[in-house]
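Hi V.,

You were right to ask for the full record rather than a summary. Here it is.
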Amino acid sequence: MSEESLHSTSSTFGKFQTYLPEFVYGGIDGAVTTFAVVAGGFGANLDTGVIIILGFANLLADGFSMSVGAYLSAKSEREQYRKNQAIEYWEVENIPDAERKEIEDIYRAKGFEGELLDRVVDQITSDKDIWVSEMMKDELNMLLEDKSPINVGIATLISFILVGFIPLLVYLWDFFTDISAQVFLLTSILTGVAFVIIGFLKSYVNQTSIFKSIAETLALGLLAAMVAYFVGDLLEQFFLS
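Predicted structure:
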């Protein structure tokens, strides 16, 4: 493989890692909500075609809604950062003594004192960009997110649809080929595998125990499916019996 190809592959993998959190949580929501729709339809004894229609309607509508929400959230956070950053630049320009005192207090609280503290404060306040960056980080506890809000929304949408499509796969297969009477069982197994994979990726994102992360993801999917199933069964008896 050429150096250019290796660089391209590395760049693509780096972008995937950057947006892995969006992929994981979009995937979890996609699988949970679509599997819940399938479980509710199964509980209500709906035909395969109806379950497929409901599943795809949920998949596309909820996927779009979630991606828009993720985009707006990321955009709002960036705008909030920029707004506070502009305020800090104004304060550095117009009330530098007060802002210098804040930097001094911040680094004194970190254990700096005496001549070392003075040198650190002098160094930081000699560059307005560094000065404002320190104020944003240490005073306001705000960091600039370098992810594109549009890419955040796209990553969320793609993962929601890709993973959320898994609970519908067996039903589609059954609709066209009439494979088996155990469609919901096969769907549950396939979706469970998807939850295991997403749970594994979630442990990587959150730096937590793999077993715990997988167990939490499986439990979430199971709980949602159980609620949907029993609600579907209850409503079927009430409205369709």
